[in-house]
From TrEMBL:
One of its GO terms (biological process) is carbohydrate metabolic process. This is Polysaccharide deacetylase. Keywords: Signal. GO terms for molecular function: hydrolase activity, acting on carbon-nitrogen (but not peptide) bonds. It comes from the Bacteria.
Amino acid sequence: MRDFIVLYPYTLTMKYSFLTLITAGAILLASCQSKSQTDSATGKDSTGKTTQTSENSKAAAIDVSKIKVADAKTILARKQVPILCYHQVRNWKPTDGKVGKDYIVEIQNFKDQMKMLADSGYHTILPDQLYAYLNTGAPLPSKPIMLTFDDTDMDQFTVVRPTLEKLGYKAVYFIMTVSIGRKGKFVDYMTKEQIKQLSDEGNVIGSHTYDHKNFKKYAGKDWEEQLDKPTKKLEEITGKKMTEFAYPFGLWNAEGIPELKKRGFRMAFQLSTKRDEKDPLFTIRRIIASGYWSPKTLSNSIKNSF
């Protein structure tokens, strides 16, 4: 997946070019994919916000330390939970290219997409619930879905957070640590305080490397620079152990999975390619929610992709 930060030595344009060459197939594959919510598991609190009542408390009650990892065949046999991957949530600019717009969901469209999910009876789940379900078959809420947001963009705090809060939804934010607190030419990024607030409010923070370097090319000191140091920084910010990882560009290789396990990660998220037959927990599928998709298209893509 892409990243809009101006990373040295990359510029935004160079990044898009890199994506076009390396992940065009993944992008195309991912792309080929009213009233308040009234499901019985939801309600409204005293402020009128839609809430997921008991669903979030169930997530908090899961003791994953007692879960034994199931064999790959068992995990692969379970029905996949829909997982959406978002990046920027802002209105398009004249300078945004065709490829870039795939990764930029306009604000009203995002709100309409979330309303569609709520009206359709979807309940957000978090990694503990997914981990328990994949390994033990633990029950999930009706119509479970996981929302994930990559790259630390500021709009994930200023736009996404209040939108999800109104629906009682929680999400996973995969943080790229090089960008924390930066103000870029094209986009600003979340601060340490904002990341901690998201965590304290019941969302999950996951690792997304230091500067989005292709996981398939890691060697030598890359494991320290891209995994160890970012993990330590995020754990210092949140006060919580990092157990989830998202591959930059969605690209992974089997050779690198033992390095993730060695560092205490229990699940890793790619994009829409086939899961690994030996390590499905480290190749969990997501689909990119394209900026070109209407809520109806998103709904159809969820049904067709999972």
